[in-house]
Amino acid sequence: MRPILLSPEQGADTIVWLATAPQVSLGSGRFWHDRRARPEYPLPWTRETGPSTARKLWDHLAAATATDSPEAGAGRAGQRGCCLVISPRGQG
User: Fold this and answer.
1) What range does the domain containing 64 cover?
2) Which pTM was predicted?
């Protein structure tokens, strides 16, 4: 039986591979796992439904966190307070 968790070396493998691979062969904006491009939406109901849904989500998150832009929640030295920032298409 294979272990569930990866070693640090195994976990870093795809990141190092992507950093050293020719950019032309990789494309842009793709999700990579185990040196393979993977679907961004593994389940049918997790796909984007359109800009209006993204805007509703953004408005909800902005109201819940008392911010109105991704920059408003910036942390120290211009860093964002979290590791993921969601913004509507065309808004950054």
Assistant:
1) 48-92
2) 0.44
